[in-house]
Amino acid sequence: xxxxxxxxxxxxxxxxxxxxxxxxxxxxxxxxxxxxxxxxxxxxxxxxxxxxxxxxxxxxxxxxxxxxxxxxxxxxxxxxxxxxxxxxxxxxxxxxxxxxxxxxx
Length: 105
What we know:
Number of strands: 4
Structural class: alpha+beta
Distance between the termini: 31 Å
CATH architecture: 2-Layer Sandwich
Largest sheet: 4 strands, antiparallel
CATH superfamily: Dimeric alpha+beta barrel
Helix content: 25-40%
Strand content: 25-35%
Number of helices: 2
Number of domains: 1
């Protein structure tokens, strides 16, 4: 199966009338869901945006349908603005998977 990488920005906007208990519940369910996807390798990277309730993530999935299923399954999905960018390998990258090259800092 061919895997596709996606860069995804997720901005969370919890409603002001959401109780603290409801907010905590949805955040805990989100954490469990996202960590399961990280463990199985489909949610490859997760980075917080400094000063915002937002993140950038890299997903490694079979395609658009699988990514949509994952994103729409997020407990915080109803409260998110999501931007998806499909990624392709850059020819100048020295650590292209399968190339045998190693990333040099």
